[in-house]
User: Fold this.
Amino acid sequence: MKTVIITGASGNLGKACVEKFLAEGYKVIAAIPPGHELGFQVLGEVEIYNANLSDEGAVNEVVSRIIAKHNTIDAALLLVGGYTYGGINETDGAILNKMFSLNFDTTYFVARPIFQQMLKQASGGRIILVGARAPLRAKDGAKSLAYALAKSLIFKLAEFLNATGSEKNVTTSVVVPSTIDTPPNRQAMPNADFSTWVKAEDIADAMAHLCSSSADTWRDNVVKIYGKA
Assistant:
């Protein structure tokens, strides 16, 4: 049975990914914030670890425990992140630090030990990161500057990991969704056309494909899932 670590597993996208990877026969290892529970029922067993992913020491301790128990980590979906609106006038150092911590630190602190482990594995591994359209479209990024800057590093991180990992069959992909159709997003934007948004289940399907043998020869993957937006 292959193993997958899913951070942000208690969120809306996390739920879809947990369900998809259980259905694909993976052993699912869920990382959620301290004091939280998964928050939904699943058809299968999910191994849960609580960790503050903004704390590098805490992340290293949890990942070490996971590796010691399972020996091999086949895939990792790093889903934690957050958004804030505001251009240059609204974006001070505190907001920058918050967005970098939430979107980049939580990704890097988990990706680093998992990537190091995957390099040691004969089977290699798959890491999936979550990007955003904002750093790819300047007009969007200018309206959410701190978020766009933080997410821009996700693309560079994937490039740098692939520069080393591809030779060891360790690939890092970036999935780029448009607005995800979730209850919080519907509440925040009640007048939007929800039919143009992307379903969390569609994103989970794409991630599962990237982790499958069908994508073994794919490299430097940036998968844009924009729906009708």
Remarks:
- Strands lie at 3-7, 27-32, 46-50, 75-78, 125-130, 170-177, 222-225.
